[in-house]
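Example 3.2
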Amino acid sequence: MLPFAELPTKTPATHAEPPLDEKIGSALVRSILDSSPDCIKLISLDGRLVYMNRNGMSAMEIDDFGGVKNELWLSLWPDEAQDLLQSAIENASLGERSDFQAYCPTAHGTPRWWHVNVAPVRDAAGSIVNILATSRDITDRIQAENTLHERDLQLQAYAEKLTAELSEKEALIEQQRILSAEIDHRVKNSFALIGSILRLKMRGMEDSEASAALSDAANRIATLSRVHEQLHIDPGHHAVDLGPFMDKLIIDLSDTFFDASRIIAAEIVDQPVRSDVAVAVGLVTAELVSNALKHKSCDVPTDVTVSLSEDVDADTLTLRVADTGQGLPEGFDIENSKTLGMQICRTYANTLKGTLSTHSGENGGAVFTLSFPKAVTQL
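Structure, written as tokens:
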């Protein structure tokens, strides 16, 4: 740092620079300036360095103030900061204060960012004689802001990437949904065609056993057809509403039998379920209804009542198929029955984690029930 003694004590008549005591003041003032953590500079009106405090020299890593004394202040700054400094000097010369933030490395090349305040210095008469520039090191703050900005850019890039991937996945899902809906529609039509062929064939048959076999096949196909029809109606949910599904299934089953027997839909809870659950409930219903009508008394119409109720307390659903036929055969054991229909019912009861049981009706006939937890139907 340049000793104050090296500065002239009087201003020559040919120089506009005021005396030292007018520029800097007392030793106490100089001590206060040196103790400031900021870089404090006194600049002449033509923009040259006149004075820099001790901590300012340390912050700028200037070993000898003599090396920069009387140098243009602008020469210490990078090109991109020149306009800011020039504007600040001009404003101070006009008596205005200004401030700015800019990057300026130290004399040793250490990167630094500064917040600079520039103000005019007036003499006792009020004339502007010098410019005071105070630079505060804000490197830590700027670097933290830059780090946050870089992270923001990284997060933004990541978010844009995720958005693009999500958009692509949504497009693929939509495409898959359309294809799935088309497949369900075609499968439903194929099942309906096969069922119609079986029913037409069944009408022309005199062999009762063969006719019954075709009837069973038609009923099973009708059940699968109804599932795919529901999926085609609402392909986005991949779910089946049991109410409409069971109602239409019972109509299909009714069309299979040509005598005066009736299939009556009682209470049918409207419960949305997965398609595999609808298949299981539908096939069990078709088997139990077909079984009741196949084993009814000869030439005696039989009523079959189908219900699907909900037990809120037990959180279960119960399928009930009751008929007014001749009742259960002697020694009938639902767990050990070897018929294909009962095997299908037991298989799907296990799939639903349910319990299949039977008992005689109050007015004759048989009652079959399938109770299963609602939890297995959750989508």
